[in-house]
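The authors assume throughout that readers already know how a fold can be written as discrete tokens. For illustration, here is how one protein appears when written out as sequence plus structure tokens:
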Amino acid sequence: NQSKQIIHTHTTELLAEQKETIDVMFYDLTTVYFETNSQDTLRDFGFSKDGKCQHVQIMLAVIVTKHGLPIDYEEFPGNCYEGHTLIPVIDKIKTRYKIDQVVLVADAALMNNINLTTLTEKNINYVIAARIKNTKKTILENILNQDGYQTISTSKDDAIQSKSIVLETGSTLVAFHSAKRARKDERDREKAIEKI
């Protein structure tokens, strides 16, 4: 696609001026709805991130550099499951632009065992957010155990700690604790209890 090639060329030229290359890719997916109910091979009904379930939509995957410069985009049918979009997009980008090695950064919606296994098999390094509620009991206990946390940042109203946990798969889970966020979560819980 000519527009995709223009986007990629422009970004690589801008990076070259700063003596940089594409080494980290940020991947995100959103929905784009249309003011119609007419379906076709791309526009279809699905989970709408805009809350517009009555309209057809497409899924739009966007890949940017660590500076927020666009690298590429890919469209998927509106009823496509978000977790199934990642690997096809990475494969197309690596082939299209002859990228050897990248670090992928993505959100928790893309974290599933198939994606992680495939990324490992394809020798693609990744940083993917994980939801604490979806972790195994033993890992959750390790996260909640205060032993091993080290302070990495402090300010007048916050202290952030982190801890690395090596998983059975050989991957590393990095857990973070923010004192400020903990106080906010505690207030939210108290408000919810009062409301009940």
Summary: The first strand starts at residue 24 and ends at 33. The radius of gyration is 20 Å.
